[in-house]
Amino acid sequence: MVWDGECSFCKKFADRFETRSKNLVEFIPYQLLSEKYPNAPAYDYQNSVYFLENSGSTSGAEAIFNFFKKTGIKWPNILYEKFKFFRTTTEFFYRLIANNRKVAGVLGRFLFGSNFLKDTFSISSWLFARFLGLVGLIAFLSFWFQAETLISSKGIIPFSDDLNQVKSYIFKSNLEISKWLVRPSLLWISQTDIWLNVVILIGICSSFLLIGGLIPHIAIMLSWISYLSIAVVSEPFLNFQWDALLLETYFLSFFLVPWKLHHNRNSLANPPALGRWLLWLLAFKLMFESGVVKFTFYGEGGSNAWRDLTALNYHFWTQPIPSWISYYIDKLPTIFDKAALIFTYFCEIIIPFFIFFPRRLRRFSAIFLITFQLLILLSGNYGFFNILTIAICITLFDDQFLNKVS
User: Fold this and answer.
1) Local structure of 285: helix, strand or coil
2) Are the beta carbons of 28 and 2 closer than 8 angstroms?
3) What is the pLDDT of residue 12?
4) Is residue 301 over pLDDT 80?
5) Residue 393's closest CA among 374, 365, 360?
């Protein structure tokens, strides 16, 4: 692969492609080509990249697609060869960028930073797993202290009553459906208080395993099954947004953590793209829907305090279990409330779209979203909700960024 060594924009792409090539392709600036290969063909290397092979040479977009084919990614080359529209379009955009490399370089620096190297997320996935284990531990311990009062045989709503009602409903309705599908819970095994405590202890132990990075996939699976088992029979008490979010996060993180006996800092691995994107989509859904719902909810008489910027006039003292700081925040001038609401809408409706942009805007979104959650954490009390959201947002940080700030 021959490129213009005097073009900094070209060098960034050459560095990115070279890391992908796995030594299958040699990269060389055309200024050094004749020195190393005196018989190399004389092409217009200054205006286009060339891919030289024994069978011939290609340039422009075709050269890039041939490089991908050589490194195992064949579909772009197939599209290029079979579809004229694809071929014409890619060559047009290649030439547009090649003829405006200075502008493209400025835009590239704005979006990617000092290099175009492929992002890796091994550190953030490791941090995420630790945070998820911590959140799970908080959730299980919190419920364990309340379980006897809430859903035990002597509790407000005994879980055994709920399971018996499900079993009775299925029998009377002649439904051909498993009770395990209606209430997917390990508590079907035994409807005793002892077994209830065992299920919660399984979740606590699996949380410790996840914090320690031990058999992370098994730990996540056990945590998910245990929390699901108690959540489905504790609907009035574990039916909040953060409970659903924790179950979703457990399930999706199964596709993120590595298959290792011990996932520690000395054995970091880049997570699968599928798991990463699933969590990013979860972060987007959580934040964007939280913003949109504020504009679509109407009270009596068609009023909407979120839309007319008056919601924070009373939010800090009407939210569930206000913190001591809430009292002082509530005393701030009204202009602060309106500014805080505008900032909230910016974080929940605008910023989530930056999750899907290149690394610098993605980092920007992560910083804003985490700052937003910390502010909520200071001004209110939503259990583990904000910590879990921060854990999900941590996956947005690439290794280059975390290595710089650490």
Assistant:
1) helix
2) yes
3) 92
4) no
5) 365
389: CB partners within 8 A, 6+ apart: 245, 283, 286, 369, 373
Contact of 50 with 79, CB cutoff 8 Å: no
Say how far apart CA 180 and CA 367 lie, in whole Å.
41
- Long-range CB contacts for residues 200-203, cutoff 8 Å, separation at least 24: 200/140, 200/143, 200/144, 200/147, 200/226, 200/230, 201/144, 202/226, 203/136, 203/139, 203/140, 203/227, 203/230
Cβ distance 402 to 124 under 8 Å? yes
Which among 270, 267, 264 has a CA at the least distance from the CA of 213?
264
Query: Tokens 């990013």 map to which residue?
Result: 280
pTM: 0.90
Range of weakest confidence among 161-170, 337-346, 367-376:
161-170
Q: How is the chain split into domains, by residue range?
A: 2-112, 121-271, 287-406
- What is the structure's pLDDT at 106? 94
- What the block records as the tokens of 371 is 């700052």
Q: List pLDDT tens digits, range 212-236.
A: 999 999 999 999 999 999 999 998 8
Rounded to an integer, what distance in angstroms lies between the CA atom of residue 280 and that of residue 142? 28
CB atoms within 10 A of CB 197: 14
Task: Report whether pLDDT(303) > 90.
Answer: no
Q: What is the model's pLDDT at position 362?
A: 97
Backbone angles phi, psi at 53, to 5 degrees: -130, 170
- Whether 271 and 121 have beta carbons less than 8 Å apart is answered as yes
Which residue type occupies 172? K
Pairing of strands 28-29, 56-59: unpaired
